[in-house]
Design brief:
Distance between the termini: 24 Å
Number of helices: 6
Largest sheet: none
Shape: globular
Radius of gyration: 14 Å
Number of strands: 0
Helix content: 55-70%
Length: 115
């Protein structure tokens, strides 16, 4: 869900800005911090409760995606599915690298584990 939401961010209204930020945090917690699912869900809830206007505009990077949800749908086995989803998420996270510092700081404000 996070990867799809980040690859399809919509336009820069406050709700969209919030969505991109919180889904990037969830991807970060999952991929870089190996956070459990319940931590990611709690992060989404906490960040969703903050004022929508408090999130900056993050410029989407749609040209950077080699993998999309259609690649996930084409998988033929559970193993291939898991690997494709992992690659899709990692590639999407990497595409937003100019904002990694911002995402890490935002994540630390709710889950202060250090980096």
């Amino acid at each position: 869900m996070d990867t799809y939401a980040i690859q399809h961010p919509g336009h820069g209204d406050p709700r969209v800005r919030q969505s991109v930020s919180i889904h990037l945090v969830s991807l970060y917690l999952t991929l870089a911090r190996n956070a459990p699912e319940k931590t990611c869900i709690a992060a989404l809830r906490e960040l969703s409760a903050r004022p929508k206007g408090s999130y900056p505009v993050l410029t989407p990077r749609p040209d950077a995606y080699e993998l999309t949800v259609s690649d996930v749908y084409k998988t033929r086995s559970p193993e291939e599915y898991r690997e494709t989803v992992r690659q899709w998420a990692q590639e999407t996270w990497d595409a937003w690298s100019p904002y990694h510092g911002y995402v890490r700081a935002l994540a630390a404000s709710i889950w202060p584990t250090g980096d």
